[in-house]
User: Fold this.
Amino acid sequence: MWATIWAGVSALASVLILAAAVWALLRWRKQDELKAKLEFKQGIARLGYCLSRMPDKITLPEREKSKERLAELKDHMSQCTYSWLASEGLMEKYPDVVKNWEYINENINQYYWGRMDRDSIGESCAAILLQKFVFK
Assistant:
């Protein structure tokens, strides 16, 4: 009789441990999603800040003067791209974020080569930063 009781207690404990493990895995997944979203948003903040310190439009003389800052801007853009890819589609639920990111991604090279000014790219960065997609 005691063996049956202890077997039941053991089975119940196993079920509770399994439930706790499943709950922990779900929380871990949510934490990873949060981390990916936060990393992207922080990257956009860095990109926007760096862009605000750049000239309105890059001319050849400006390119020479701003070599280091231009390299920094490219690094921030690379980090944003990496974060976007690492998010594995998590941002698809936020169409304004997707639209503004696509604009930045498609037009940043136009700014690098002096074919457009920084304002519209900066506005897209600001629009992403205003979206509540990390801590809703």
